[in-house]
Design a protein that fits this description.
- The protein has 263 residues and is an all-alpha fold.
- The protein has twelve helices and no strands.
- It has helices at residues 2-17, 19-39, 47-60, 63-93, 96-111, 114-125, 130-153, 157-165, 170-208, 213-222, 226-255, 257-262.
- It is globular.
- Residues 67-252 form the ABC transmembrane type-1 domain.
- This is ABC transporter permease.
- InterPro entries: MetI-like, MetI-like_sf.
- The chain crosses the membrane at residues 12-32, 75-94, 106-127, 133-152, 173-193, 229-248.
- Pfam families: BPD_transp_1.
């Protein structure tokens, strides 16, 4: 509750400080407009046409079920990968032997392309929610695992020894010594995995489901409707930006406030 109140209280200042991010998004829109003018609307419709198509989809109610299905699958796979990757990564980081044994496995998992996991998931789970959820989990898990492992392995031994020498209570050891350090590795991994989850779930839906943004993109591809394709891309990217910059990033800033206090 304290963290939520701090997040809500700091939200206006955080939004005001995001002018640089907004400027980069406007630059991206300008580049999009320029490419559209050069190549024509058949190849790339301009941003206004894409946003108008998205507005029509939302007004008609056609967008919401597809976005909800995609978000549900992405967040389910992402939540599983956060839980498993964080727990197993921290556990492996506490042991040098486990860390050494885990590294080749993580390399194998990270080197396996998501499309390979998708084909396996189709064979195991068939068409339905299980395939995109599993594919998201397989793609996001190693990213989070490595972040948690690095966070546990790089904890300053001198700091830990000093805390033990002063006989800090366990709660204080966890909250003031372990958590800030581990969180500085976990949050970037969580944010990177969130972007991966969003990309992978759309790819999986394209081949494995009858609903969701990926399935909608398959329909627009069949109709050669570039404007609707860009509208769906804008919708799913907008959801990702909202989740990252309105939820994860403010929480990360609040947890890492100790860096600013120590500077």
């Amino acid at each position: 509750m304290k963290l939520l109140r701090a997040w809500l209280g700091g939200l206006p200042a955080y939004l005001w400080s995001g002018w640089g991010a907004l400027a980069s998004l406007f630059l991206l829109l300008a580049a999009w407009e320029a490419v559209s003018l050069v190549h024509g609307p058949l190849v790339l419709p301009d941003p206004r046409a894409a946003f108008a198509a998205l507005f029509d989809l939302m007004r008609s109610g056609a967008a919401w079920p597809e976005l909800a299905a995609t978000a549900r699958r992405a967040l389910a796979g992402y939540a599983l990968s956060v839980a498993a990757g964080s727990t197993l990564g921290l556990a492996a980081g506490l042991s040098a032997t486990a860390s050494t044994m885990a590294r080749p496995l993580v390399t194998v998992l990270m080197g396996t392309p998501p499309i390979a996991w998708l084909v396996l998931a189709l064979l195991w789970f068939g068409a339905g929610d299980g395939t995109p959820v599993f594919t998201v989990f397989a793609a996001a898990f190693p990213v989070i695992f490595v972040g948690a492992l690095q966070g546990a392995r790089t904890l300053d031994n001198q700091l830990r020894t000093m805390a033990a020498a002063f006989r800090l209570p366990r709660r204080m050891m966890f909250a003031d010594v372990y958590l800030p350090h581990v969180a500085s590795y976990l949050f970037p991994a969580w944010i990177a995995a969130l972007g991966t989850a969003w990309k992978v779930v759309v790819m999986a839906e394209l081949l494995a489901t009858q609903d969701g943004v990926g399935a909608a993109l398959a329909v627009t591809r069949a109709h050669l409707d570039t404007t609707a394709t860009m509208a769906w891309i804008v919708a799913v990217v907008g959801l990702l930006l909202a989740l990252e910059y309105l939820v994860l990033e403010p929480v990360k800033r609040e947890i890492e406030r100790w860096r600013e206090q120590g500077a």
